[in-house]
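Protocol step 4 of 6.
Sequence for Probable ring hydroxylating beta subunit (Bordetella petrii) entered exactly as in the expression construct, tag removed. Do not edit the line below.
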Amino acid sequence: MRMNEQLTLRLVVSDFLDRYVSALDQNRLESWADLFAEDALYEIVSKENCDAGLPIPLVRCKGARMVRDRVLSLRHANIYEMPVYRHLLSGLQCEVVDGTGPIDFSASFVVVNTTPVGETSIYLAGCYKARLSRVDDDLRIERMTAIYDTAKVPTLLAFPV
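Step 5 output, structure tokens:
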């Protein structure tokens, strides 16, 4: 892949990731759910499990309908203190599969949480490993795995990462 093609790909994926984390940070969960392909897979899993080859994630949504159902439950069924998250991203790596196919990417993330009383702390750190597909001049998530670095489950992991 030529330099200008690689830069364009990086810009397109970076823009997509900005939309992804912006939707989460601004509590626009319905917009976040719209980023998933109908047959998408969304998982949150510990690095410890990934390293050990253990396949059971903490959160798993198979298909966009399940992602939307999670949003509905967060809006109407679950009781929790509303988080204020800010995602910070770095280390974006991306490549097109088979030259013209889907796009695989990875990126590191840190999520900070600010409580209603104004305390800010690191909530979660880890990396995304994902595959995007092209749909009607836009991108959709085929697979998104958020791998968090600690074996300790953060409190209130109700919200997507």
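Step 6, annotate. The first helix runs from residue 3 to 25.
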